[in-house]
Design goal:
Strand content: 35-45%
Oligomer: single chain
Helix content: 25-40%
Number of strands: 13
Number of helices: 7
Distance between the termini: 27 Å
Length: 262
C-alpha cells in the first residue's frame, strides 16, 4: 500500500483546506483539522496509480509531497537500539554490540519524537450476596442475588525518542529516554533520564553538524495511533499506541530530507 504525505504546505491553512477538500474526499473542516495537526500529514493510502496521480496534483499546487510504500517502514523495535551508546571522536559505538558503530558523517537526520501508549484494562466480576428481600419473598428458598461489577484501570506511558537516520540508507538507530545507560556520554550526568536524554541529543547534534535536526514530530498536535484489544475470561485489555504511526512519519520525513538534499 502506498502512502501519500504532505510534508510542506504551500499556502495558508484555511484557503488551502477548502481547495484540497475535494482532492482528498473530505469536507473543508475535516481537511483543516488534518493539516492543522502538523506535517508530515498523511492524506491518503492507495494503490500505486492512485497515489501517484494524487501526488502529482498536490505538487502542482506547490505542496511538498512524499509517496512511499508502507512496507518499507522500519519499526522502531527493529532499529539499532542505543541503550549503551559511547561517543567517540568520529563515531558513536555501542558497548553491548561489539563492532557496530555509526560514523557521524553518515548521520542524515536527527528526529526527536514522543511515543505514547495508553492501556485500559477492564475486569468483570460476579458475586453472590445475601438478599433479605429475596429470602422474604421466596419464603427462604432463595437467599442470594447475583451482583455484577466491572473494574477499570488505565495506564499512560510516554517516552521521548530520537530517530537517527543514515545517509547510507542502513538501518536507523534510535535513542530512548528510558532504559538507556548514559555513562558513555563522557559528561557529568544529570539526576533524571529526561535531562540525560536531552544532553545526549545536544551532544549528537554537536558531533554530527552535517545532520538535519527537525523537531516537528514533537510539536505535532496529533499522531496516527493503533488500537489493539485482547480479552480472556472476563478481562479485556485495550492498548492504544502512537509508536507505529510515529515510525511512519519519521520514515516520510527522512525521505523528504534526503530527496530535498537538506
Amino acid at each position: 500500500m502506498q502512502v501519500v504525505a504532505i510534508t510542506q504546505v504551500a499556502a495558508s491553512l484555511d484557503p488551502e483546506a477548502s481547495a484540497l477538500a475535494s482532492e482528498l474526499g473530505l469536507t473543508a473542516y475535516e481537511t483543516r483539522l488534518l493539516l492543522a495537526a502538523g506535517t508530515p500529514t498523511l492524506v491518503r493510502r492507495a494503490d500505486v496509480p492512485t497515489a501517484a496521480a494524487l501526488a502529482s496534483r498536490l505538487r502542482a499546487r506547490g505542496h511538498g509531497v512524499v509517496v512511499c510504500d508502507e512496507a518499507d517502514v522500519i519499526a522502531s523495535s527493529a532499529m539499532v537500539d542505543m541503550r549503551r551508546l559511547r561517543l567517540g571522536s568520529d563515531r558513536v559505538s555501542l558497548d553491548d554490540r561489539a563492532g557496530e558503530a555509526l560514523p557521524f558523517d553518515d548521520v542524515l537526520a536527527l528526529l526527536p519524537a514522543r511515543h505514547r501508549q495508553r492501556t485500559e484494562t477492564s475486569t468483570a466480576t460476579t458475586e453472590h450476596k445475601f438478599s433479605a428481600s429475596r429470602a422474604l419473598v421466596s419464603g427462604g428458598l432463595v437467599t442470594t442475588t447475583t451482583v455484577k461489577s466491572e473494574a477499570r484501570h488505565t495506564t499512560d506511558r510516554s517516552e521521548q525518542v530520537l530517530y537517527v537516520l543514515r545517509r547510507s540508507g542502513a538501518t536507523p538507530w534510535i535513542l530512548r529516554e528510558h532504559g538507556t545507560h548514559w555513562s558513555g556520554l563522557g559528561r557529568t550526568l544529570a539526576p533524571s533520564s529526561i535531562e540525560n536524554f536531552r544532553l545526549a541529543v545536544g551532544l549528537l547534534r554537536e558531533c554530527a553538524p552535517g545532520a538535519v535536526y527537525d523537531d516537528r514530530l514533537v510539536s505535532r498536535k496529533a499522531s496516527p495511533e493503533r488500537t489493539d484489544a485482547a480479552g480472556v475470561a472476563g478481562a479485556r485489555t485495550v492498548t492504544t499506541s502512537s509508536e507505529g504511526g510515529i515510525d511512519l512519519l519519521a520514515h516520510v520525513l527522512g525521505l523528504w530530507i534526503a530527496r530535498a538534499g537538506r
